[in-house]
């Protein structure tokens, strides 16, 4: 009996992933879940009391798996810059995975406190690794930089999901290149040494304007 309930619950979660991928959180309804799984609507309520409960369960199941894959890629990378590349590239290579697409759809929707807490818990270790890598690169505000870095990832995800003219691999490579340029060590982007910068050529001295018969400027004339 317990095994049967586990299978039914897993089937509901799998149906929820499909609905989220196809139509976002608005598509995730109990009638749709019942239709996808062949269950009566009342039976769906035996497993989840509300749509928010379904989303919260997906957050607790899928977000840790997704975060663990990204963390593993970062841990295997050698050096701070390589970890940042792994952070960006691994997220974008997961875009085609249905679990990842459901995660993206969940993140884009309105979430209750329980779901948000599950996401924060799953992201905790990942964020810490990104912040540490950015700190190693010399960033004074690594958390702010991490937020901006994720913005690059999110934009690339949307571009891939829109089915843009570029092939996904090109979008991934462009996002990685942009991210690495953006997070390179601040010391390498500091102002150039004044001694190595040639002095600008002196500007030519303008010829004095001829004095007109009226010494009053047009501005004064309007006063």
Model description:
By secondary structure, the chain is mostly helical. It has a domain at 59-185: Tetracycline Repressor, domain 2 (Orthogonal Bundle), CATH 1.10.357.10. The chain is 69% helix and 0% strand. It has helices spanning 2-23, 30-37, 41-47, 51-76, 80-93, 98-108, 113-136, 142-161, 168-183, 218-222. α1 (2-23) packs across α6 (98-108), α2 (30-37) crosses α3 and α5 packs antiparallel against α9. The chain is elongated and about 60 Å long. The model is unreliable at 206-223 (pLDDT under 50).
Short description:
This protein has 223 residues and is mainly α. The chain has helices at residues 2-23, 30-37, 41-47, 51-76, 80-93, 98-108, 113-136, 142-161, 168-183, 218-222. α1 (2-23) packs across α2, α4 runs parallel beside α7 (113-136) and α5 (80-93) packs antiparallel against α7 (113-136).
Q: Please count the beta strands (DSSP E, at least 2 residues each).
A: 0
CATH topology of the domain at 59-185: Tetracycline Repressor, domain 2
The number of distinct helices, counting runs of at least 4 residues, comes to: 10
Low-confidence stretches: 206-223
- The overall average pLDDT, rounded, is 81
Biggest β-sheet description: none
CATH homologous superfamily label of the domain at 59-185: Tetracycline Repressor, domain 2
List the secondary-structure elements in sequence, H or E: HHHHHHHHHH
Give the overall shape.
elongated
Question: What structural class do you assign from the helix and strand content?
Answer: mainly alpha
Helix content: 55-70%
CATH class of the domain at 59-185: Mainly Alpha
Indicate the radius of gyration in whole angstroms: 28 Å
């Amino acid at each position: 009996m317990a095994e049967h309930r586990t299978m039914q619950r897993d089937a509901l979660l799998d149906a929820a992933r499909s609905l989220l991928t196809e139509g976002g959180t608005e598509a995730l309804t109990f009638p749709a879940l019942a239709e996808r799984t062949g269950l009566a609507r009342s039976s769906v309520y035996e497993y989840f009391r509300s749509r928010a409960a379904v989303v919260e369960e997906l957050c607790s199941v899928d977000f840790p798996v997704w975060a663990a894959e990204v963390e593993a890629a970062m841990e295997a990378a050698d050096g701070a810059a390589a970890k940042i590349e792994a952070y960006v590239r691994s997220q974008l290579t997961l875009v085609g995975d249905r679990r990842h697409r459901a995660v993206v759809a969940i993140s884009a929707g309105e979430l209750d406190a329980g779901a948000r807490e599950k996401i924060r818990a799953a992201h905790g270790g990942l964020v810490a690794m990104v912040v540490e890598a950015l700190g190693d690169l010399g960033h004074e505000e690594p958390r702010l930089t991490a937020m901006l870095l994720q913005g690059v990832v999110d934009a690339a995800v949307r571009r891939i999901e829109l089915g843009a003219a570029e092939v996904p691999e090109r979008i991934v490579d462009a996002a990685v290149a942009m991210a690495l340029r953006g997070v390179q060590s601040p010391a390498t982007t500091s102002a150039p040494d004044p001694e190595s910068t040639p002095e600008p050529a002196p500007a030519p001295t303008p010829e004095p304007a001829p004095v007109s018969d009226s010494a009053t400027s047009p501005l004064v004339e309007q006063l």
